[in-house]
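Aggregate trends can hide what the representation actually does to any particular protein. For completeness, the protein is quoted in full, as a sequence line and a line of structure tokens.
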Amino acid sequence: MVDFARSHTGALDSEASAAAPLDLPERFDEVIEDLHVVRLPMVTRFRGITEREVVLFSGTAGWAEFSPFVEYGTEEASRWLRASLEFSGLIPRPTALAEAASSTDSVRGSAPAAEANGETVAVNGTLPACPPDQVESILSRYGRVGTVKAKVAEHGFASLDEDLARLREFRKLFPDTTLRLDANAGYTPSEAIEACEAFADFGLQYFEQPVPEVEQLADLREELARRGLPIVIAADESIRKAEDPLRVAELGAAEVIIVKVQPLGGIGAALDVIGASGLPAVVSSALESSVGLAAGAELAARLPRTDRSLDILGDRVACGLGTGRLFTADVVAEDEALTPVDGAIPVTRIVPDPDRLEQLAVDPGRFEWWAERLQNCWSAVRDLKVRG
């Protein structure tokens, strides 16, 4: 395997190198030799799917995951690939990544919450749309966690009664657990107001992406303030590109941003986004295997702490990286998977089990579909068609 991070490209932290196309061969299979596509079955339906297909490959720094959702086009999916290539060491990380984190902390008068030195990061449990009688069994997979994020609006506003029944059961079982909600942009502005009024009694830490557009989030925050509803708004789907959090901050559309390593193009890019926005951040997964979750854990370990973050999110930010519990099988044995133990996961690298890679492998047709998709994204990264 050729070490392109050393032999073909310089550091990407300078303006010149950041603006220049990467000096990569035309085809990914000239660099990525150990490519696997696996299908991970899920405990229950989540984000409308019951299984997750992910691509895994290794590089000079270790294993990485490429797993954009199947509906994403090449431009959006290419940012995911850039993050994966960086995490694997097949393209260089910004050499100023650590300095950028330190600089961000200095500018914002804070210190990193943790360092990527084997410590753990706190995670939240995830409660998908499910009948109330399944709440306890689903959350039992996470063990003891101090924070849970519940999915709502699976079918838009039509799901409200089901959501309320599930949340009432949750609060009966876990009266002292911190609760977040995530609507995945499932409401119209008028529906969001009504939903917020219904959810206000559950003591939310924040409500994630109730409406689709940034402007709608800003209007919703203004209306919530007018009505005296104490609900903190977080932006997730509104943050797909590096410039998005800046617009969220400029319009006052949210008080918290949700950041994900792959969609933003890598750990360094995500840290830049957090610093530039000036908003408290929560790292979340993109429904990845343990290999992909490892990149999120490293970013979570570098989150800066500020007064605003402490006020809203507490001393130890619970990140959305416990989603490994949503799979019935992972690419490593259960005792080696990056799943929560007492509400935390370690900051580490994951090496897939060869037997698991074979057992979970997709059929040849799906492998070829992903290989073609990866090549299209590779070409976009190589030609600098992918932007932050």
Remarks:
- The mean pLDDT is 87.
- The radius of gyration is 20 Å.
